[in-house]
Amino acid sequence: MIHVIATIELNPGMREAFLKEFHQLIPQVLAEDGCLEYRSAIDLASGLAAQPPNRDDVVTVVEKWQSLDHLKSHLTAPHMKDYRETVKSMVVGTKLSILEPA
Known about the structure:
102 residues
């Protein structure tokens, strides 16, 4: 199993529109072979000293896949290509952290 943390930086004011498109994508991704989890999250103001300030134009995607090969297949799935085309004007950049259990 692998974990993926995708940090998606958005153009200012685009978070709600981005999340609308993302939520429409979730059922298709969850139906993919090897997908164990695929959810979006946004920063929560916790008041904890260790947490940096909230990022209003960032969405974090938390994913779990059975294997790296499953993730690679996901990245080239036709619905992902369509989705990336739909949201490209909203997205400044994306960073991936791909992790394995320790």
